[in-house]
């Protein structure tokens, strides 16, 4: 469950491998927690140990490039004002974040890092900013002030040439990580898989020959803790798709009796205030798309999120919200498959 993004791969774990028939499960540590990859190795001529090591290597590369919590990563060094190597991964993530910024008309903004930091939902502790501080931050951050492509000089990207922007890829990087692992697995011939790195990419069937099933958390306020309450179970139908849930019920804080959610509206600079509790998005395109659209929904609020999901080909969604009486209700798009 999202949105405790914490892209901070803590250590390169050897990983646990469990095998039965042609299916294996590979687990390890990544992005502030654990990951799990279940896959069918039937017809794959790559040893399971090589698959495990390749997955770990890819996740380590993502961490050392994109994690704002790893102070030695490229994005952390870039945010600190240092020129960094223009690696393909660094440039690809910027292009992808730019695409979602344009598509969302600025509501998914990976260059609004100072706003997230100011409220304590980024890479720094908050000080509860004043309206004046928020206004000042809005004047100097945001993807709209940056070029469509990062300028590269001598193989490096210089933040000084861009006005020292602060990049925070929390809105898409976990989903993107799933896509990177899935891309590798497809490349070696895997057809049945479930990649779980906080977000999900799945395809084909599970070891029982049935469709993959993913639990949807019930949005109960439990800061920083996982809930064992499920609202239902989404089923894949054997399709290839990314599945991401974004919500404001795990990462928030209270001040003077008011709840401040971690979803920041990048145009106002303040936490959103509406009755949408969580958004689960299923994308046939990529887990990164599901990740971005789940964040987008949480910025929009209930009615606009419904319209977005209904008007977007290849997307399905499930929204949990509070009605006027405070009772929890659900809305699902026509193609969203859920069992209780």
Helical content stands at 25-40%
Given helix and strand content, the structural type is alpha+beta
What integer value in Å does the Rg equal? 20 Å
What is the terminal separation in angstroms? 18 Å
Strand content: 15-25%
Largest beta-sheet details: 9 strands, antiparallel
CATH superfamily heading of the domain at 80-162: ApbE-like superfamily
Shape: globular
CATH structural architecture of the domain at 80-162: Orthogonal Bundle
> What is the typical, i.e. mean, pLDDT?
88
Uncertain segments? 1-14
Would you mind describing this structure in some detail?
It contains eight helices and 16 strands. It is α+β, with helices and mostly antiparallel strands and 340 residues long. It has a domain at 80-162: Orthogonal Bundle (T-fold), CATH 1.10.3980. The strands form four sheets. Strands 1-2-3-6-7-10-13-14-15 form a nine-stranded antiparallel sheet. The longest helix is centred in the first third of the chain and has 19 residues, at 48-66.
